[in-house]
Amino acid sequence: MGKKDASSVKQPVDQYRKQIGKQDYKKNKPALRATRLKAEAKRSAPGIRDVILVIVAVLVFLIGIYAFFYLNLSTELDLDLDMD
């Protein structure tokens, strides 16, 4: 019988803890929001590694095109000299 009566009535300590928990949550809510926004921005922003990889890929492509045209033009010039 004692257990039924004790569970239905809240202890003052439990009420106090619940009230403190609510106050702490209200206090930390802006801090939690700032942390969440910071983590979200970090996830959505392109990393320095991705930017470097794109730049390197573009440079390799441009160097490949340059080498292709350089080799084609230099062999055509050599053929022109040999015909003379």
The overall strand count is 0
- The end-to-end span amounts to 118 Å
**Portion of residues in helices?**
over 70%
Average the pLDDT over all residues and give the rounded result: 77
Helical segment tally? Answer: 3
Major beta sheet summary: none
Shape verdict: rod-shaped
Low-confidence runs = none
Query: Strand content of the residues, in percent?
Result: under 5%
Q: Encode the helix/strand succession as letters.
A: HHH
Assign the structural class, choosing from mainly alpha, mainly beta, alpha/beta, alpha+beta, or little secondary structure. mainly alpha
Rg value:
36 Å
Transmembrane segments: 51-71
Keywords: Endoplasmic reticulum, Membrane, Transmembrane, Transmembrane helix
Family: Belongs to the TRIQK family.
Pfam families: TRIQK
Describe the structure.
With 84 residues, the protein is mainly α. The chain contains 3 helices and no strands. It has helices at residues 2-8, 12-44, 48-83. The radius of gyration is 36 Å and the shape is rod-shaped.
Keywords:
single chain, 84 residues, mainly alpha, TRIQK, transmembrane, endoplasmic reticulum
